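Title: Prediction job returns without error message
Component: structure pipeline
Severity: low
Priority: P3
Assignee: unassigned

Description:
Job completed but the reporter wants confirmation the result is attached to the right record. Sequence as submitted:
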Amino acid sequence: MQKLNSLEIVEYFREKCHRHDLKVTPQRQAIFEALHKSRIHPTADQIFNIVRKQYPSISFDTVNRTLLTFAAIGLAHVVEGYGNSRHFDPNMDPHHHAHCIKCGSILDFYNSDFDRLEIPEEVRKKFRVLNKKVVISGLCRKCQKK
């Protein structure tokens, strides 16, 4: 998804919800906006802590289920499992991840060669590929210095 301004982001969210018969509620919109404004790949707990400032009665379960619903309708990706908590990514453009095995940070990167990687025939025979993403594991710059 290309860079959108805040009004376009809200309209994109509303359109996607309507297309999937998902009611647009202020809480869902707040969850989406918190996810979209995040510069990291936040966990449900991180989004919950942001949203509950505006909606103190919202439950963690509501936030978590909403984020999973967003992933199901194409508003977010569930990032590869690192540690105990799922991370979510609002970036729906084709991209890849570099994951720090020490601090857990996840960095988006773009590489057209990786985008064109061929799926092995043995996988194609047994699996319908919907998305492909390269994940590089290592140590981020900060953790290398420690």
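Comment from assignee: result matches the submitted record. The CA atoms of residues 62 and 79 lie 19 Å apart.
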